[in-house]
Amino acid sequence: xxxxxxxxxxxxxxxxxxxxxxxxxxxxxxxxxxxxxxxxxxxxxxxxxxxxxxxxxxxxxxxxxxxxxxxxxxxxxxxxxxxxxxxxxxxxxxxxxxxxxxxxxxxxxxxxxxxxxxxxxxxxxxxxxxxxxxxxxxxxxxxxxxxxxxxxxxxxxxxxxxxxxxxxxxxxxxxxxxxxxxxxxxxxxxxxxxxxxxxxxxxxxxxxxxxxxxxxxxxxxxxxxxxxxxxxxxxxxxxxxxxxxxxxxxxxxxxxxxxxxxxxxxxxxxxxxxxxxxxxxxxxxxxxxxxxxxxxxxxxxx
Length: 302
Known about the structure:
CATH architecture of the largest domain: 3-Layer(aba) Sandwich
Largest sheet: 12 strands, mixed
Strand content: 25-35%
Number of domains: 2
CATH topology of the largest domain: Aminopeptidase
Helix content: 25-40%
CATH superfamily of the largest domain: Gcn5-related N-acetyltransferase (GNAT)
Radius of gyration: 22 Å
Structural class: alpha+beta
Distance between the termini: 40 Å
Shape: globular
CATH class of the largest domain: Alpha Beta
Strand order of the largest sheet: 1-2-3-4-5-12-6-11-10-9-8-7
């Protein structure tokens, strides 16, 4: 190799290294979020209550520092010390960043996450930017899921409800868990019962004990199920909308979902859920239940 070629390569490498150094955010502004920051963090998240309901609910249910969060909360502060970003970095990595520097710094923090990251989720295309800061071109997502955000609040049209909608009971754990596992497998391609049976059953049982799983049964047969994954003083977030095979295509989902929304709206201002952009039949059901599509987001699976 000629000296000129060597010099050219060295120059190119030096330029690349300089670019990396310039691109590194102000990591000294990243902070661990602890119990004493609870009110400050909740106030920050409350500015976009629908988009941050899961993080806010985790904090209210478990606290900022808890193994139940399956990760750790970090913040990013401005020069003045105000929060510009909050992220739960862990199994489900959730991000609310108000500036690009906050997003970048929180992504850099995730490079050394103590809990393996399974998915990254945020509003709009923020998750994609977070992924690019975290992995660059070194890693591609195993799956990219675009989801539509559906919301409902008062006033909304209530469908006729002839079903006995109620909270699930502890003795119904296996039936509820199997239905939820079916929903997860349809969305992610793998059943959580196969991946982490004990942990999945434990989390499902906790939601049942919190009375956050709504069900309709016809005898011993599960007709409908919906899980309140997160709830704050103003927003409830639903997942795991399930209808038994014998009851599909009959308007069951929209009527039962409308009943769930009516129940939840007695204590919150807004009910929301996310649904894969491909599930158009489900979307029609959500619209018939009185919900409306207000936004979209991207979820990236590692």
